[in-house]
Amino acid sequence: MSENLVHNSDAGMERLLEIMRRLRDPETGCPWDVEQSFETIAPYTIEEAHEVSDAIERKAYDELKDELGDLLFQSVFHAQIAQDMGLFAFNDVVNAISDKMVSRHPHVFGDESNQKSAEQQTKDWEAVKAAERAAKSEGGVLDGVAMGLPALMRAVKLQKRAARVGFDWPEISMVLDKLVEEAQEVAQANNPEHLEEEFGDLLFVMANLGRHLDVDPEKALRAANSKFTRRFKYIEKSLAADGRHPSDSTLEEMDALWDEAKALDKAGQNISD
């Protein structure tokens, strides 16, 4: 029965759960899978989540199906580890998220009116989450903001939490003033430890500025990374046409090619080919 299920391409979720159970079988499973723990798998989970985001960012929808499958497999893997430890099973995970979604959407699944603005629904959502944190004895304003989040994303979440209780700059100009102050402190840092600390403060204020401007700093930085990659590849391609590599050219020459790539890019011309 188990063998038939594993090879049944129409069996859906039940098939995937059986594959995971077989991989983790202490006697007949894969040694690598059997050795894994929550801690060793967590980095792969984060990586797969980023690959989903990357496929969406690139509008590579043909890849998205596979990336979502990889991410789903991570959830199944963690659930199987938990079951092996006697903690919970995959169905418990499914039931928990289902209960949470029903609880957080009383305007859909309860008797509350669904004639609300998106802004009001967001406020209601935050109120429900606050009640959930209180039930978990997470009394602090910043409790529950996951440590494993990308640093910029976590910075924004921390700032939003603090802002809910009034700890926030009321004007963007005040954030900009703080940005200048932190930049000066970076310039004045006199040892590596101090420099790292001040640079971190500067990044934190930059994240805060993005929040005040309603700009997602994580998304903005990803876009800047893509732009830099696109324009630098133009430099490489231009030099390669002469049989050269960037290491064979001068900074002045590469700067000129960068300006050329920037102008073409801003004009909407495709410089990636």
Description of the structure:
The chain is mainly alpha-helical and 273 residues long. The chain folds into 3 domains: 2-102, MazG-like (Helix Hairpins, Orthogonal Bundle); 140-215, Helix Hairpins; 218-266. Helix content is 71%, strand content 0%. The chain is built from 13 helices and no strands. It has helices at 2-6, 12-23, 31-35, 38-57, 61-84, 90-104, 106-109, 118-135, 151-164, 172-188, 192-212, 217-240, 251-266. Helix 9 (151-164) crosses helix 11. The radius of gyration is 25 Å and the shape is globular. It is an enzyme of class 3 (hydrolase). This is Nucleoside triphosphate pyrophosphohydrolase. Residues 36-109, 175-233 form the NTP pyrophosphohydrolase MazG-like domain. It comes from Thalassococcus halodurans. Belongs to the nucleoside triphosphate pyrophosphohydrolase family.
| Secondary-structure element order, N to C | HHHHHHHHHHHHH
CATH topological fold name of the largest domain: Helix Hairpins
Structural class: mainly alpha
The main β sheet shows up as:
none
Shape: globular
CATH arch. level architecture of the largest domain: Orthogonal Bundle
Low-confidence stretches: none
How many individual domains? 3
Query: What is the residue-averaged pLDDT?
Result: 90
Helix content: over 70%
Distance between the termini: 51 Å
> What is the overall number of helices?
13
What can be said about this structure in brief?
It is an enzyme of class 3 (hydrolase). This protein has helices at residues 2-6, 12-23, 31-35, 38-57, 61-84, 90-104, 106-109, 118-135, 151-164, 172-188, 192-212, 217-240, 251-266. It is mainly α.
